Here is the input.
Amino acid sequence: MAEMADLYDERWKETPGQESAPPEGLARIGQKPQTIARDESSNPYFRIISKDVREYHFIVPSEEVVELGEIFSIRDGRREAEITFLARITDILHDSNYDGNWDTVIRGDGFYDSDQIFCRVVAEPLGCVVRDEGGERFRKARTIPAKFSPAAKAGREELKFLADEEADVEVGLLRNGSEIVEGIPVALASFAMDHHMGVFATTGMGKSNFMKVFAASCMKKASSKESKFGLLIVDPHGEYILGNEGTKGLLHLARYRDGIVCYSTDPRHKKDPAVSELTVKKSEILPQDIEVLYAWTSAQREALEAISRVFFEEGWIEEFLTPEGAAKMIAEGFHEKTVGRIGRTIKTILDKNRYISDFTSSIPGIINSLLAGKVVLVDIPNLGERSELFLLSILSRAILERYRIESAEGARGKSCLITIEEAQRVLGGGEGSLARFESIAREGRKFGVGLCAITQQPKLIDKQLLSQFNTFVILGLADRNDRTRLEESAKQDLSSLDVEIQTLEKGEAIISTLKIPFPVPASIHLYEKYLERLNREGPSEGRGRMGGFNPPPD
Ligand SMILES: Nc1ncnc2c1ncn2[C@@H]1O[C@H](COP(=O)(O)OP(=O)(O)OP(=O)(O)O)[C@@H](O)[C@H]1O
Here is the structure.
């Protein structure tokens, strides 16, 4: 037989009067590990055997299934205060008490002693929960659990401290490995929302589902007048309002419909009294909003920048499009062709974005609803990416201006969170990025304006901008560079979660945010199920009166 490895010294000694199970050769799948029969204190499995303050090791029977990412609790009985260390599995290795190539040596039909082989589990310390007269609190661990301290998969009791009262926007349930820890919701803290949030996932991993769940929780809070921020969603795919392809939408949340305000360009929603027709007044458009839409030459850019000097703000569009307006620009030294190209683009925008009106605007109503802490959904299906960016540009400028003024006057309402889908388009840092969103990322929080950036490709988002984000919701991310970018920018250490993030299933997430002491594994609610639950919470408010489009509020 090959020599025992040094681990042998550390192993249990038999308690007198107790017999160890006889070696039986290779244990068969489904058979209980032999050592389980031994006295609890003599069992070497699930006990911390090494290694240091950065890494704990314990062994488990080869037949035992443990998973990467599972959180284990380790009871340390040495102290007066009750301390439970928590550690997350980062690796699982085959190991044994033998040296050399014992596992490939033929040894009659006995093979080898199954109780000498096992799996070694490597776990990263997360911290410890201390219970004393002062109650229960979590802190980082500055020491190592006592040798042979028992480790067990953490359950509801050990993890209940994660259900923080300040985290009030529910998005899912706590997950331990693949198992859901029933009764412990995972929620995001409202107060962190103007510190920006990022939702990252490869396509199909559940971004839209997450956003609907998040918005539904916001609607619930708004409906009960408890919300602390307004949420703006501009939806170019028409999927949030009533869902698509068998999924449900936000208006199906009848119970909390008064927590949402919808504006739409889609005539199909005309009959719904909860939906108003979207309009934007021509006078609300600035040259900067046109500038963000196209890759302009430097001459064209200069001309666009000069518009605010040459024309009055009100009515610049009409004036620019007249022969006199063009002549004014040419007199300023701009080439006829440059002026012509800008004029044609403006006409195209007016033509495509039929919601642009001479007289009415939804914008004041949108901002008032955000200040009141409601969810505002702007539904613009079939208008395309340019219209979405154009609208986002106008809206975010108006929001930022109003929030700036109200903050200066000390009279601001609730904070607000502006959602940007495919955020890499506008937060890339380089060409094509949008200065306005970058400035919201950098200084929006001063005025209570946060960004919720959703993207499949965080690697394309500027590193510095990303480091301004305090909440990361990470669903499965296949690309290594995407994961590296998040690791570089997250407030919490994500480096040991690389494999786990890679192996997340649909709807599984790792959430790193303020107030939760470590990146927490979550199972995001499936929207349709969450919807059923919320709608069951009380009597439906009904769909209200039926009629045409509401007059746009202003
Ligand atoms: N939390 C969840 N629980 C169970 N299934 C989910 C969950 N989230 C998403 N799914 C499943 O994954 C599918 C895709 O989800 P979703 O449309 O939200 O992904 P996505 O990342 O937004 O995709 P895309 O990038 O294509 O828009 C859903 O139809 C649903 O079946």
Observations:
- The radius of gyration is 30 Å.
